[in-house]
């Protein structure tokens, strides 16, 4: 038995994704779902939760945005007291950022609620289905993280 064509698959996923995202939003109450931070800002907080500190250039690269856009994004998180920024002592051209305790609390709450939402939404799947779904997601992740072919 063959599966759906890539075109049919994409049509179905496009109709399912908004429903899943709405269900996440209904189950969560945090700065992201209340519109106090944007999705790219949440990604920046998540990145910094995985690193003690990061250079602004690394942040822009990790978010796949230009430095100017990264600066605007980081400035907003600074004003919200979720990040700290400082110049490197040895090279003033290098700018570092890190999470504040408020930033750590915010991203921790978001991630905790996301894990709970995932458990609630996907509890309908049995162990084999979860394993297969995770395997497919990991394959997509690997493809997305692969260096571009020249």
Question: Brief description of this entry?
Answer:
This protein is mainly alpha-helical and 150 residues long.
Give the helices and strands, then pairings.
Blueprint: H1 6-27, H2 39-49, E1 54-55, H3 56-63, H4 67-79, E2 83-87, E3 95-99, H5 101-122, H6 127-145
Antiparallel strand pairs: 1-3, 2-3
Helix pairs in contact: 1-5, 2-5, 3-4
Describe this protein's structure.
By secondary structure, this protein is mainly alpha-helical. The protein has a single domain (6-145), classed as Arc Repressor Mutant, subunit A (Orthogonal Bundle), CATH 1.10.10. Helix content is 63%, strand content 8%. It contains six helices and three strands, in the order H-H-E-H-H-E-E-H-H. The chain has helices at 6-27, 39-49, 56-63, 67-79, 101-122, 127-145; strands at 54-55, 83-87, 95-99. It has a three-stranded antiparallel beta sheet with strand order 1-3-2. The chain starts with 5 loop residues before the first helix and ends in a 5-residue tail after the last helix. The mean pLDDT is 93.
Distinctive features:
150 residues; Arc Repressor Mutant, subunit A; 63% helix
Mean pLDDT: 93
CATH level-3 fold name? Arc Repressor Mutant, subunit A
Class in CATH?
A: Mainly Alpha
Report the total helices.
6
Indicate the proportion of strand residues.
5-15%
* Low-pLDDT residue spans: none
């Amino acid at each position: 038995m063959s599966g759906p064509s890539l075109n049919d698959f994409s049509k179905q996923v496009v109709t399912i994704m908004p429903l899943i995202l709405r269900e996440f939003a209904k189950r969560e109450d945090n700065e992201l779902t209340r519109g106090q931070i944007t999705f790219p800002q949440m990604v920046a907080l998540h990145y910094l939760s995985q690193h003690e500190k990061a250079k602004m250039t690394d942040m822009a690269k990790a978010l796949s945005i230009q430095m100017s856009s990264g600066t605007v994004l980081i400035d907003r998180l600074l004003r919200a007291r979720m990040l700290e920024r400082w110049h490197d002592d040895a090279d003033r051209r290098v700018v570092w950022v890190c999470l504040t305790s408020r930033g750590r609390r915010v991203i921790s709450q978001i991630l905790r609620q996301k894990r709970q939402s995932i458990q609630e939404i996907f509890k309908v799947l049995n162990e084999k289905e979860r394993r297969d779904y995770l395997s497919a997601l990991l394959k997509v992740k690997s493809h997305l993280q692969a260096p571009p072919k020249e």
